[in-house]
Amino acid sequence: MGLIFAKLWSLFGSQEHKVIIVGLDNAGKTTILYQFLMNEVVHTSPTIGSNVEEIVVKNTHFLMWDIGGQESLRSSWNTYYSNTEFIILVVDSIDRERLSITKEELYRMLAHEDLRKAAVLIFANKQDMKGCMTAAEISAYLTLSSIKDHPWHIQSCCALTGEGLCQGLEWMTSRIGVAKRFSIPKAGILSSSLNTLHSVR
Ligand SMILES: Nc1nc2c(ncn2[C@@H]2O[C@H](COP(=O)(O)OP(=O)(O)OP(=O)(O)O)[C@@H](O)[C@H]2O)c(=O)[nH]1
Ligand SMILES: [Mg+2]
């Protein structure tokens, strides 16, 4: 009886899904978290440790951990990994010099045992900045198409205006729908392939 109730409970989307928001310092993680929560731009200072907020999207509850991205803090990101369903990786699209560091951090995370079931949403943030990299350029540099064991999606956005953020959340909620329905969704050019989505379930 208890098991049936638990299954029904999860089917109706009342459980909480753990999300970690990671990326280098100054990428815009905290700005994104509070855009999700309040629909406005807050004044931020570099995060020491983390911020955590519950975000509800169409009856789906996400517990989002925004983790400080400074170099000295990155070695402790792994203390947040257990039970994570989604990684949101925020990239500062103007910061070409440090994209290689983001790439290293991404692949280190994907290799971590505690994140083996996690789906990855990459936000190509700061699209309002002149000369910024496009989502397609970032996708190519990060060789996202080589990722076969995690569902992933890249979304361009601007945390200051909120543009692109809803689309990212929609992808996340659609992934939860996929897991529940056990069906294969359509994959876009900037998402992991059908094969990938199929093989990770
Ligand atoms: N132009 C522009 N600036 C942005 C955007 N998103 C965030 N910022 C700015 O970037 C700076 C850093 O933003 P934060 O959200 O504090 O960055 P963070 O990733 O949380 O940084 P850490 O906490 O140090 O890891 C702030 O001045 C933000 O206002 C954006 O889309 N466009
Ligand atoms: Mg922060």
From TrEMBL:
GO molecular function: GTP binding; GTPase activity; metal ion binding
SMART domains per the UniProt record, alphabetical: ARF, SAR
Keyword terms of this UniProt record: GTP-binding, Lipoprotein, Magnesium, Metal-binding, Myristate, Nucleotide-binding
Residues that, per the record, bind Mg(2+): 30, 47
InterPro entries per record: P-loop_NTPase (IPR027417), Small_GTP-bd (IPR005225), Small_GTPase_ARF (IPR024156), Small_GTPase_ARF/SAR (IPR006689)
Biological process (GO), any one: protein localization to Golgi membrane
Record-linked SUPFAM superfamilies: P-loop containing nucleoside triphosphate hydrolases
Membership in a protein family: Belongs to the small GTPase superfamily. Arf family.
Name under which the protein is recorded: ADP ribosylation factor like GTPase 5B
Protein's organism: Catharus ustulatus
Lineage: Eukaryota, Metazoa, Chordata, Craniata, Vertebrata
Gene giving rise to this polypeptide: ARL5B
